Amino acid sequence: MKLPTFPGGIHPLDNKATTATKALVNCSLPNELIVPMLQHIGAPAACCVTVGQQVAKGEQIGTAVGPVSVPIHAPTSGEVIAIEPRLHPVGRPLPAVVIRPDGDERWHKGLQGYDPDSLNPDELRQLLQQAGIVGLGGATFPTHIKLSPPPDRRIDTLIINGVECEPYLTGDHRLMLEEGSKIVDGILILRQILGVNQVILAIENNKPDAIDAMRKLCLKTPIEVQPLPVKYPQGAEKQLIEAITGRQVPSGKLPMDCGAVVQNVGTAAAVSTAVRQGRPLIERITTVTGTGVRNPQNLRAVIGTPLSHLIEQCGGFSDDPGKIILGGPMMGNSQISLEVPVIRGTSGLLVLRHQDVSIKKPGPCIRCGQCVKVCPIHLQPTVIALCARLGLIERADSYNALDCIECGCCTYQCPATLPLVQSIREIKGAIMEHKRKH
Amino acid sequence: MLAAVACLGGIGLVAATALGIAAKKFAVEVDPREAAILAALPGVNCGACGEPGCSGYARAVAEGRLAPNLCPPGGQQTAEALADILGIKIKVKEPAVAVVICQGGDNLARQKYHYLGLEDCNAAQKLAGGPKSCPGGCLGLGSCVRACLFGAITMTPEHLAVIDRDKCTGCEQCLKACPRQVMIMAPKTVTTHVLCNSHDKGAEVRKYCQVGCIGCNICKKTVPEAYTIDNLLARVNYAQADNAALAIAKCPMKCIRDLVDNNSAEKPGSDETVPAG
Amino acid sequence: MDKALYISSSPHIHSGVTTDKIMRLVIYALLPAVAVAVIFFGLPALKVLLICTLGCVACEALCCKLMKQPVSIGDGSAALTGILLALNLPPSSPWWMALLGAAIAIIIGKMIFGGLGYNPFNPALVARVVLLISFPIQMTSWTAPAPLSMGFDALSSATPLGEMKSAVMLTGQLPEMATSGFDRYFYGLMAGSLGEVSALVLLLGGLFLIFKRVITWHIPVSFIGSVIVMAGIFWLIDPTRYPSPLFHLLTGGLMLGVFFMATDMVTSPITARGMLIFGCGCGLLTVLIRLFGGYPEGVSFAILLMNAATPLIDRYTRAEIYGDHHHDRGGLQ
Asked: B31-93, which class in CATH?
């Protein structure tokens, strides 16, 4: 049987073998945790502790501001030693609470688990927001918002994303192998909140062990495990919906506008923990990998752990690091310092050696059409990039620059090594500004 | 032969008549002064006046919405020509030129990372605040060069923007293109400038730049009326800059320069006493 | 952490297939055809090849120096243009004509527009057509292929297309050579330009390029398909006057054009539908020019004409984007 997929996309080397067989390891506590107030899409949380205050594990240290926001919790017990801007993965200092762990791991009193069957969807959503659950695939969109479709939208499909299409990353893979039952439990809670019948767990078939494991666990549940062929960006929300349902999210709209909701497997596991045990999202799985790391591993690290500590846990650098990337190599952000902490969206830490970084200067576009061929949105990246270079804002808009999902396929494939995504990102900013003005 | 001539001639005649009628019938009423103003403008469509182009400015001037002295590329001559057309007297603005207040090329200023990607300062600035350690230093990727309609800006091999004061018309397009405000407008008559854009503390500045202003106040002590210290950064007071040049030799960081008289001090970097970064 | 880190916008990895690698692969794909040309036509062919290739590289280096740009000959595109130009010239071409062709290809065909990526027309074809119009005698003096003869005592001969055209014009009938014995054309035993002789090796080179994903199937398939359909229609109308589609496919520069000239990335459309339209247009024009035009061969003119239409084709063949079913595509904006 031919497996469903989406048109376009690329087949980069997945480089997952180094960590795919390595079991999850708990990362030790560092001397200092840096917990930024912005770890999700939406308004940053407001800090609600003071310097010198003792906090318990799971205690709120930042409260949600407005509906599209989630609270931030203390990742362990300890003392607040500073509240100040610290370097954030986005590349500039942002407000953060710095905690010195006391090593007791004392849980906050009042954290209480529930039986999901005893709660109604609204109570469950409330619970998830209070637990700070956001999309753990990397986008960190608050989960309770995604689970609250307006009454006029009928959601008929819940898709659980176990695709993990970014090269190098294996965190979701290991999670499915080691904590599959927790994922299944979380999926069933998500299903209960949305009230949908059809639940599909999508896994790329480069993880046959995960497919088997999840199939066994899902036998007596309404969850259907769907293998997908290996292709990047299959795990991108829009592409996954197209692959699974054949539907397309209307341009400029949300997945719920075509009746689908997508949640990551890591999010599902976090949902289960939040509901059953009442424990907020204070840790996540991060794949520390790449040629520049001596002993690559899948680490379970608490939020706020500095990257330097992760590197230490993995045996240090194997050579001069050239590029340090948070997330996968296709959509991750390169970092200037190891003082940056792990946040909720940190799916991986990829270190490339100095000699692995290509410093080739971009050449002229030879109009080969590769970018057009691989674009999963069917855009013409080279034309949009040309508009960007010439400052043709309206023309770029007419070529649908705003629909670009910045997956990076065009840039990966471009023989002239042009920074197409960066150009498109620039012109997208210009288009939005232009639209605000007019 | 005759038929061909008659035929072609006939077609020409008919077409000419049609065009003539159309020109009369569909003629758009234009203020004659607007056309005259447009003719007197330099026609570079730089946008410095605030209108999208020269024709927009011509209309605005003819309608009295904008003053006739707002065209920096045209300068005094154009302003007077426009005033003549309108039959009014105007005060001519003092000509201004853009000045790059940074000397920290690759050889003198530290980079906090190697930037790979789009040759565009605004794009680089978005990645961790730009590669240059100094928060105000010239990024050297040439966004201003591309924004300049008069070819007045060039890049040195050390990736530092340099302005040709003779070609600069003061249209301020480079100021809009620069993400770090490393260009300022200054009267053309003033040639002494403090070439630094960092408000950081002296110790901090020394860490990343060999020619950065450390806010030591020596220039202000030397010529009090010509300098102001704004948040640890010296600036020339352009209203009273006559004696500003006296401080050039005193500046320990060699960041005060005369942009016209290059011999006023040796080039930065050639001096052994410059503190290492 | 002694050395400063690199920072760039995502993505941080690359396929490794760069412009120079693509050019290298195309040159590899052309090597069999080059070898066949040298074997069949001997030293004169080698001379033309060398003059064109070196001439193109030298011209590009010179232009880059004059334009104060970094010298771009390392990307291999100039060498490729040189080889393609040589394959479009008769083996008996005088040295000055080959050199002039190289200069025209690089200077007028490419650098004047700003270099690689900006030229609207295929540079090698521009040079070929300019030479064809300027020096019709030298450009249509053919020698019969004589394998391994080193090119001494070459006999003059006519190309199959030329022979066919003059016979049809004189007698209104196809000569015998245009109705049978096609296998020798397939292997290359016919007079013609360096790269017109063996359909077999060009086909192999083209398949190599498709296999290596340097080119896609769209242009070759639509080009060949439309030649078959168009030639087939005329052939069915009057087989004594119009040659069969197979004759069209195997003779002249068709195979070279299909796989190496029409698929030139810079001058062909970037959309899949655009490529199909482009290939069809090339095929139709080729057959029309061959059957009814003044020149016996029409591939170069057909491709150049379609090159001119490429921007227009690109504009009107934009794919429907993801999630937008009512998008107003194309049109003047």
From this structure: mainly alpha
